[in-house]
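Progress report, Aim 2. The chain analyzed during this reporting quarter is listed below.
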Amino acid sequence: MKLIVCVKQVPATESMLAVRPDGTDIERSGLTFIVNPYDEFAVEEALRIRERIGTGEVTVVTLRSHAAQKPEAALRTCLAMGADRAVLLSDPAFEDGDSFTTALALAAALRRLSFDLLLFGKQAVDDDEGAVGVQVAELLGIPHVAVVNRLEVDAKARNLVAHRQIEGGIEVVEAPLPVLVTCQKGLNEPRYPSLPGIMKAKQKPLEVLACHTLGLAPDTLGAAGAKLRVVRLELPPPRPPGRLIPGDAETQAKELVRLLHEKEKLI
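Predicted C-alpha coordinates for the chain:
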Protein backbone atom coordinates (compact mmCIF):
# COMPACT_ATOMS: atom_id res chain seq x y z
CA MET A 1 0.00 0.00 0.00
CA LYS A 2 1.34 3.40 -1.00
CA LEU A 3 0.80 6.09 1.63
CA ILE A 4 1.88 9.70 1.01
CA VAL A 5 1.91 12.38 3.68
CA CYS A 6 2.21 16.05 2.73
CA VAL A 7 3.81 18.12 5.48
CA LYS A 8 4.66 21.78 5.99
CA GLN A 9 7.51 23.39 7.91
CA VAL A 10 6.18 26.18 10.14
CA PRO A 11 7.66 28.55 12.74
CA ALA A 12 7.82 26.99 16.20
CA THR A 13 4.81 28.06 18.24
CA GLU A 14 7.03 29.52 21.00
CA SER A 15 8.84 31.80 18.51
CA MET A 16 8.81 35.54 19.12
CA LEU A 17 7.29 36.97 15.94
CA ALA A 18 7.91 40.37 14.38
CA VAL A 19 6.19 41.90 11.35
CA ARG A 20 8.35 42.92 8.41
CA PRO A 21 8.61 46.68 7.78
CA ASP A 22 6.41 46.41 4.66
CA GLY A 23 3.68 44.71 6.73
CA THR A 24 3.12 41.85 4.27
CA ASP A 25 4.65 38.99 6.26
CA ILE A 26 6.41 38.07 9.47
CA GLU A 27 10.19 38.33 9.69
CA ARG A 28 11.25 34.76 9.05
CA SER A 29 15.03 35.05 9.32
CA GLY A 30 16.27 33.72 12.64
CA LEU A 31 13.12 31.74 13.42
CA THR A 32 13.13 28.12 14.52
CA PHE A 33 11.08 25.92 12.17
CA ILE A 34 9.33 22.64 13.00
CA VAL A 35 7.04 20.13 11.34
CA ASN A 36 3.47 21.44 11.48
CA PRO A 37 1.92 19.70 14.54
CA TYR A 38 -1.21 18.56 12.67
CA ASP A 39 1.01 17.03 9.99
CA GLU A 40 2.71 14.95 12.68
CA PHE A 41 -0.64 13.24 13.30
CA ALA A 42 -0.77 12.45 9.57
CA VAL A 43 2.76 10.99 9.56
CA GLU A 44 2.03 8.89 12.65
CA GLU A 45 -1.21 7.57 11.15
CA ALA A 46 0.55 6.54 7.94
CA LEU A 47 3.17 4.66 9.96
CA ARG A 48 0.48 2.92 12.03
CA ILE A 49 -1.44 1.87 8.92
CA ARG A 50 1.73 0.39 7.44
CA GLU A 51 2.40 -1.46 10.69
CA ARG A 52 -1.18 -2.79 10.92
CA ILE A 53 -1.28 -4.21 7.41
CA GLY A 54 2.33 -5.41 7.60
CA THR A 55 3.41 -3.93 4.29
CA GLY A 56 3.49 -0.70 2.34
CA GLU A 57 5.57 2.41 1.77
CA VAL A 58 5.29 5.80 3.50
CA THR A 59 6.47 8.81 1.51
CA VAL A 60 6.61 12.34 2.88
CA VAL A 61 6.37 15.36 0.58
CA THR A 62 6.95 19.02 1.36
CA LEU A 63 7.29 22.30 -0.54
CA ARG A 64 9.71 25.14 0.19
CA SER A 65 7.26 28.06 0.36
CA HIS A 66 9.70 30.66 1.72
CA ALA A 67 13.40 31.17 1.10
CA ALA A 68 14.14 31.25 4.85
CA GLN A 69 12.81 27.73 5.36
CA LYS A 70 14.97 24.62 5.59
CA PRO A 71 12.36 21.97 4.75
CA GLU A 72 15.06 19.30 4.49
CA ALA A 73 15.04 19.27 8.31
CA ALA A 74 11.29 18.62 8.37
CA LEU A 75 11.69 15.72 5.96
CA ARG A 76 14.57 14.27 8.02
CA THR A 77 12.34 14.40 11.11
CA CYS A 78 9.64 12.41 9.29
CA LEU A 79 12.21 9.91 8.02
CA ALA A 80 13.51 9.53 11.58
CA MET A 81 9.96 8.75 12.72
CA GLY A 82 9.93 5.87 10.24
CA ALA A 83 8.96 7.18 6.79
CA ASP A 84 10.58 5.33 3.89
CA ARG A 85 11.03 8.07 1.32
CA ALA A 86 11.10 11.88 1.12
CA VAL A 87 10.36 14.28 -1.73
CA LEU A 88 11.14 18.01 -1.65
CA LEU A 89 9.56 20.51 -4.05
CA SER A 90 12.12 23.29 -4.25
CA ASP A 91 12.20 26.10 -6.80
CA PRO A 92 12.12 29.91 -6.49
CA ALA A 93 8.89 29.76 -8.52
CA PHE A 94 7.12 27.99 -5.62
CA GLU A 95 7.90 30.68 -3.05
CA ASP A 96 5.52 33.25 -1.53
CA GLY A 97 2.40 31.70 -3.02
CA ASP A 98 -1.01 31.00 -1.47
CA SER A 99 -2.90 27.80 -0.71
CA PHE A 100 -3.96 27.38 -4.35
CA THR A 101 -0.47 27.63 -5.87
CA THR A 102 0.84 25.31 -3.16
CA ALA A 103 -1.92 22.80 -3.97
CA LEU A 104 -1.20 23.15 -7.69
CA ALA A 105 2.48 22.22 -7.21
CA LEU A 106 1.71 19.40 -4.79
CA ALA A 107 -0.95 17.92 -7.09
CA ALA A 108 1.49 17.94 -10.01
CA ALA A 109 4.08 16.12 -7.88
CA LEU A 110 1.55 13.60 -6.55
CA ARG A 111 0.47 12.71 -10.09
CA ARG A 112 4.03 11.49 -10.64
CA LEU A 113 3.87 9.27 -7.57
CA SER A 114 1.80 6.14 -7.05
CA PHE A 115 -0.53 6.42 -4.03
CA ASP A 116 -3.49 4.73 -2.40
CA LEU A 117 -3.98 7.15 0.49
CA LEU A 118 -2.99 10.80 0.88
CA LEU A 119 -2.72 12.24 4.38
CA PHE A 120 -2.50 15.93 5.34
CA GLY A 121 -2.78 17.82 8.61
CA LYS A 122 -6.14 19.60 8.86
CA GLN A 123 -4.40 22.98 8.80
CA ALA A 124 -1.03 24.64 9.24
CA VAL A 125 -0.54 26.55 12.49
CA ASP A 126 1.11 29.52 10.75
CA ASP A 127 -1.73 30.65 8.45
CA ASP A 128 -4.59 28.44 9.80
CA GLU A 129 -6.27 28.31 6.38
CA GLY A 130 -6.95 24.56 6.27
CA ALA A 131 -7.36 24.73 2.50
CA VAL A 132 -4.41 22.98 0.83
CA GLY A 133 -5.47 19.37 1.41
CA VAL A 134 -9.00 19.91 0.12
CA GLN A 135 -7.71 21.81 -2.92
CA VAL A 136 -5.25 19.02 -3.75
CA ALA A 137 -8.09 16.49 -3.68
CA GLU A 138 -10.14 18.64 -6.06
CA LEU A 139 -7.20 19.08 -8.45
CA LEU A 140 -6.55 15.33 -8.44
CA GLY A 141 -10.24 14.49 -8.82
CA ILE A 142 -10.34 12.15 -5.82
CA PRO A 143 -12.65 12.12 -2.76
CA HIS A 144 -11.54 13.68 0.50
CA VAL A 145 -12.58 13.48 4.15
CA ALA A 146 -11.53 16.43 6.30
CA VAL A 147 -10.79 16.84 10.03
CA VAL A 148 -10.66 13.12 10.87
CA ASN A 149 -9.93 11.84 14.39
CA ARG A 150 -10.38 8.11 13.79
CA LEU A 151 -9.48 6.13 10.69
CA GLU A 152 -10.06 2.50 9.68
CA VAL A 153 -8.38 1.36 6.46
CA ASP A 154 -9.18 -1.92 4.69
CA ALA A 155 -6.36 -2.45 2.18
CA LYS A 156 -7.93 -5.58 0.65
CA ALA A 157 -11.35 -4.01 0.12
CA ARG A 158 -9.62 -0.74 -0.89
CA ASN A 159 -11.79 1.50 1.21
CA LEU A 160 -11.70 3.36 4.50
CA VAL A 161 -14.07 4.48 7.22
CA ALA A 162 -13.34 7.89 8.77
CA HIS A 163 -14.84 9.37 11.93
CA ARG A 164 -15.27 13.13 12.26
CA GLN A 165 -16.40 15.09 15.30
CA ILE A 166 -19.34 17.36 14.55
CA GLU A 167 -21.48 19.45 16.87
CA GLY A 168 -23.38 17.06 19.08
CA GLY A 169 -22.08 13.83 17.62
CA ILE A 170 -19.75 11.81 15.39
CA GLU A 171 -20.05 11.65 11.61
CA VAL A 172 -18.90 8.39 9.99
CA VAL A 173 -17.84 8.54 6.35
CA GLU A 174 -16.91 5.66 4.04
CA ALA A 175 -14.83 6.27 0.91
CA PRO A 176 -13.02 4.16 -1.70
CA LEU A 177 -9.27 4.35 -2.29
CA PRO A 178 -7.54 6.44 -3.50
CA VAL A 179 -8.74 9.13 -1.11
CA LEU A 180 -7.32 12.15 0.71
CA VAL A 181 -7.74 12.60 4.47
CA THR A 182 -6.89 15.61 6.64
CA CYS A 183 -5.97 14.70 10.21
CA GLN A 184 -7.14 16.23 13.47
CA LYS A 185 -5.79 16.19 17.01
CA GLY A 186 -6.95 13.06 18.83
CA LEU A 187 -6.34 10.73 15.88
CA ASN A 188 -3.19 9.39 17.57
CA GLU A 189 -0.18 10.36 19.64
CA PRO A 190 2.84 10.99 17.36
CA ARG A 191 5.95 9.03 18.27
CA TYR A 192 9.31 10.61 19.01
CA PRO A 193 12.11 9.81 16.55
CA SER A 194 14.49 7.23 17.99
CA LEU A 195 18.26 7.74 17.97
CA PRO A 196 18.76 4.89 15.43
CA GLY A 197 15.98 6.43 13.34
CA ILE A 198 17.68 9.83 13.42
CA MET A 199 21.01 8.32 12.34
CA LYS A 200 19.37 6.35 9.52
CA ALA A 201 17.42 9.43 8.37
CA LYS A 202 20.68 11.31 7.80
CA GLN A 203 21.71 8.71 5.23
CA LYS A 204 18.44 8.50 3.31
CA PRO A 205 18.33 10.45 0.01
CA LEU A 206 15.91 13.30 -0.62
CA GLU A 207 14.31 13.47 -4.06
CA VAL A 208 14.15 17.09 -5.22
CA LEU A 209 11.61 18.22 -7.82
CA ALA A 210 11.76 21.63 -9.48
CA CYS A 211 9.17 23.58 -11.43
CA HIS A 212 10.30 22.40 -14.88
CA THR A 213 10.36 18.77 -13.69
CA LEU A 214 6.66 18.99 -12.88
CA GLY A 215 5.81 20.59 -16.22
CA LEU A 216 4.32 23.70 -14.63
CA ALA A 217 4.59 27.27 -15.92
CA PRO A 218 6.40 29.51 -13.40
CA ASP A 219 3.84 32.30 -13.84
CA THR A 220 1.10 30.00 -12.46
CA LEU A 221 2.97 29.36 -9.21
CA GLY A 222 4.18 31.21 -6.15
CA ALA A 223 3.59 34.94 -5.86
CA ALA A 224 2.95 35.24 -9.62
CA GLY A 225 0.03 32.80 -9.64
CA ALA A 226 -1.43 33.48 -6.19
CA LYS A 227 -5.16 34.17 -5.99
CA LEU A 228 -4.87 35.79 -2.57
CA ARG A 229 -2.65 38.69 -1.51
CA VAL A 230 -1.84 39.81 2.01
CA VAL A 231 -2.66 43.52 2.21
CA ARG A 232 -1.33 44.10 5.70
CA LEU A 233 -0.25 42.11 8.70
CA GLU A 234 -0.38 43.56 12.20
CA LEU A 235 0.41 42.28 15.67
CA PRO A 236 -2.51 42.45 18.13
CA PRO A 237 -2.55 45.55 20.36
CA PRO A 238 -0.79 45.13 23.70
CA ARG A 239 -3.01 44.16 26.60
CA PRO A 240 -3.66 46.87 29.21
CA PRO A 241 -1.80 46.36 32.48
CA GLY A 242 -3.56 44.40 35.18
CA ARG A 243 -4.88 45.99 38.35
CA LEU A 244 -3.97 44.89 41.87
CA ILE A 245 -6.68 45.21 44.53
CA PRO A 246 -5.20 46.01 47.94
CA GLY A 247 -6.46 44.75 51.28
CA ASP A 248 -7.27 41.41 52.85
CA ALA A 249 -9.14 38.60 51.08
CA GLU A 250 -12.59 39.82 52.15
CA THR A 251 -11.91 43.40 51.04
CA GLN A 252 -10.46 42.22 47.72
CA ALA A 253 -13.47 39.99 47.03
CA LYS A 254 -15.95 42.79 47.71
CA GLU A 255 -14.03 45.25 45.55
CA LEU A 256 -13.74 42.70 42.72
CA VAL A 257 -17.49 42.09 42.74
CA ARG A 258 -18.13 45.84 42.71
CA LEU A 259 -15.80 46.40 39.75
CA LEU A 260 -17.30 43.53 37.76
CA HIS A 261 -20.81 44.82 38.43
CA GLU A 262 -20.41 48.59 38.16
CA LYS A 263 -17.49 49.06 35.77
CA GLU A 264 -17.24 45.97 33.57
CA LYS A 265 -21.01 45.19 33.63
CA LEU A 266 -20.27 41.48 33.74
CA ILE A 267 -22.44 40.59 36.70
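The chain has a mean pLDDT of 93. DSSP finds eight helices and twelve strands in the chain. These observations will guide the mutagenesis work planned for the next reporting period.
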